[in-house]
Write a structure and sequence with these properties.
Elements: H1 4-22, E1 33-42, E2 47-57, E3 60-69, E4 72-84, E5 91-104, E6 107-121, E7 127-133, E8 136-140, E9 143-147, E10 150-158
Antiparallel strand pairs: 1-2, 1-10, 2-3, 3-4, 4-5, 5-6, 6-7, 6-8, 7-10, 8-9
Length: 159
């Protein structure tokens, strides 16, 4: 369990990094910003909530999600490096990672989340879809735990 003072510092630090990324150069991707629904599923419960993805440079994006499950809320921030597949307009692979903080029953846990996945933006339609593998590495209570069977789906409207 993370102490409240440390949790506040971690949240402030994460938000500063996120804001700095949003203020840098604009993207050359198929879209700049997308807002929609994120679904995190696999072993354990399914989490659902709002999701935003923003390209702050040509191949560099930030993803933010607040997902909800039974008595738990997750705040997830991820960096994603994107690269298009040759001759496949709008279809990209990505890799990256970032932190997640789980809030439950007056407590919180810190997790690291590597991510690899696929992103598809439909040509001439403001919709993007993503599928990824996002395992988590849990740190807390003197125990470290790795959960490999976690995945994500994203359904977003693009701007």
């Amino acid at each position: 369990m993370i102490k409240p003072k440390m949790m506040k510092r971690l949240i402030v630090f994460s938000m500063v990094l996120w804001t700095a990324g949003l203020l840098t150069a604009k993207a050359q991707s198929n879209y700049e910003t997308a807002l929609g629904l994120g679904i995190d599923f696999g072993d354990g419960q399914t989490l659902v909530g709002p999701s935003v993805k923003h390209f702050f440079a040509e191949n560099h994006a930030g993803l933010g999600e607040v997902t909800f499950g039974d008595n738990v809320t997750f705040l997830t921030l991820m960096y994603q490096y994107h690269k298009e597949f040759p001759n496949a307009d709008g279809f990209q692979w990505f890799a990256g990672g970032g932190p997640s903080i789980a809030f439950f029953d007056g407590n919180s846990d810190f997790l690291l989340r590597p991510v690899v996945g696929l992103d598809y933006k439909i040509a001439n339609v403001p919709l993007a879809f993503s599928f990824d593998w996002r395992p988590w590495i849990y740190f807390g209570d003197g125990n470290n735990d790795f959960e490999a069977a976690r995945f994500g789906l994203g359904f977003r409207y693009t701007f």
